[in-house]
């Protein structure tokens, strides 16, 4: 039986065997209700990838993303990795609990419920909201406002480029950067706006935006994001508190944008060190390879318009392989995701999709080695939870799969009104 390891070329498979992989599911052989589970499907987690997880609502995207995160945590090389889940729905804290609900299903796979040591991070200024709702968290994070560019502020506020507000914003930030470098607070920005020689109405408008930014609860003196990339750790960045707020997705994007920018910069520096080490025959991993999982990614990297996360994420996608950053994006509407990200994906997991434009968006990027069009493969999937297709650009193969049950609790299930 050939071993299926997705994300690896044949040579890589020969060299590493199953080291640095995790079992995410089983190959489905046969069509529709005749389909049965065959060989395990292993996923490479040792090298950087750009992955996409797609499917209609309730088809298992968030669930599968959790499965991949579990496999990274359990991998033999997990100490050389660091995983971050961007959680706009506030559902991944439940990975701390074993999936006792599915003991029987897990047993059939030779697996047991298991709790994972996730660290849940929330915005420092939002602890009260979490406490009041009894939502668990472990740590808080902050961003340094002085490190934001005027572009990032502009996009976070949802301002038009070249509007009066944006012009004033740019001048103020430029002046503060020149005077204080990376050390100034939102209060200093407010003072600077006040003192600026500019139209009063525009000044008031900008001040209001910055006052509002204070209420986001994400700004502090220092950025505390580096603790999110500790070796072997699985961190959940819970940005769900912004979900209901108007303009909240822009704030979520800002957090993602700043985080990705910073991680990429640090990984690039680390990569230079690692290369110097290699030249001297030392094989050392200076900083773990970072895997970032983003649920509902069309909000952060949309096809139309730009968010503070667009540029940083596109950089991950385009140059991330070399410095060693990996990205996994989920969305129910691949057609709504930036096509530049789609086209760079080397591993796709497509759960059931029905919208023609979404199927086309995926079909376009992987058609070279598909015998039929994507719709044919999707239609042949049995109507069971967690089935999907894996398209792998590395091995140039397509596999119908049954994704495995989760070892840790999944909190994202669809509620229903039936009582047990
Ligand atoms: N591989 C799987 N095995 C068993 N049940 C699954 C699997 N994938 C998804 N499910 C079920 O489907 C539900 C919806 O999945 P979820 O990932 O939350 O959907 P979405 O695609 O909207 O993110 C889950 O709560 C779970 O009950
Ligand atoms: Mg989901």
Strand content: 15-25%
Strand line-up in the sheet with most strands: 1-3-2-13-12-11-4-10-9-5-8-6-7
Q: List the ligand species.
A: adenosine-5'-diphosphate, magnesium ion
The beta-strand count equals 13
Count of DSSP H/I helices:
13
Mean pLDDT level: 94
Major sheet description: 13 strands, mixed
**Pairing-aware structural class of the strands and helices?**
alpha/beta
Low-confidence stretches: none
**Alpha carbon gyration radius:** 23 Å
Q: Which outline best applies?
A: globular
Key traits:
binds adenosine-5'-diphosphate; alpha/beta; 13 helices; single chain; 420 residues; binds magnesium ion; 35% helix; 13-stranded mixed sheet
